């Protein structure tokens, strides 16, 4: 469904950075929320097809090496490929150079850890998937369990489905609340989950333990990355 929302004279540029092992909904939720009012660029280390963490094929349409000097919004999704994205020099170099210039620096889910690895969250309140909140400390961020955190020009969303909330709040920041409300209605976004247990506040301890075991490798990767970085600093 296109062309149904009021059109704006200004179309902000949004740089979204997909990577192998991303969680599709982390990117698609914000994309669907923003696309009618922004010019979205899918920038990657490669434009060859890769697999998301669910096995679905995906690809960037532009190379990070060919990126413009400025984007109004820089956005990073999360996923099981986050650890590799944190070590991808193309992604980190892009974020480190474009992030400080951008109007908004943003993420959903574990994408905030990639922002942290690029040095963009030091001293900022931020969120991520609930199971990885403690990892934000490694990057000098101040963890918050809010679904979406806005701290100055840093906007970070929680896990996966928070991407739609994130996108709507970003739309309100870029334009106004009415624009965001139109988008919310078009998406028919009025969540009423069929089951309890979608957050650690309502989930069983068994389920929480299972998820934390699942993400343990990513937590270890964050620790390793920071230790390596600090070791390099100590050797200078």
Automatic annotation (TrEMBL):
Presence of the UniProt keyword Oxidoreductase in the record: no
GO molecular function: transferase activity
Keyword set, alphabetical order: Glutamine amidotransferase, Transferase
Highest taxon in the source lineage: Bacteria
Domain DJ-1/PfpI as annotated: residue spans: 14-172
Keyword Transferase: yes
GO BP annotations, alphabetical order: regulation of DNA-templated transcription
Name this polypeptide is given: Glutamine amidotransferase
Organism this protein belongs to: Mycolicibacterium neoaurum VKM Ac-1815D
């Amino acid at each position: 469904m296109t062309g149904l929302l009021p059109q704006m004279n200004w179309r902000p540029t949004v740089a979204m950075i997909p990577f192998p092992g991303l969680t599709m909904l982390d990117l698609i939720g914000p994309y669907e929320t923003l696309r009618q009012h922004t010019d979205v660029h899918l920038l990657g280390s490669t434009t060859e097809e890769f697999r998301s963490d669910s096995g679905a094929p995906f690809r960037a349409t532009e190379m990070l090496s060919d990126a413009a000097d400025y984007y109004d919004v820089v956005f990073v999704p999360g996923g099981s490929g986050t650890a590799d994205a944190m070590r991808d020099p193309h992604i980190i170099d892009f974020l480190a150079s474009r992030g400080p210039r951008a109007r908004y620096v943003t993420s959903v889910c574990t994408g905030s850890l990639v922002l942290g690895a690029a040095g963009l969250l030091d001293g900022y309140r931020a969120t991520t998937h609930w199971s990885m909140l403690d990892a934000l400390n490694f990057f000098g961020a101040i963890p918050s369990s809010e679904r979406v955190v806005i701290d100055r020009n840093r906007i970070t969303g929680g896990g996966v489905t928070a991407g739609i909330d994130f996108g709507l709040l970003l739309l309100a920041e870029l334009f106004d609340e009415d624009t965001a409300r139109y988008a919310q209605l078009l998406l028919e976004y009025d969540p009423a989950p069929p089951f309890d247990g979608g957050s650690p506040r309502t989930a069983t301890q068994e389920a929480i333990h299972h998820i934390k075991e699942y993400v343990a490798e990513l937590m270890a990767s964050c620790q390793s990355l920071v230790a390596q970085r600090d070791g390099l600093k100590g050797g200078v």
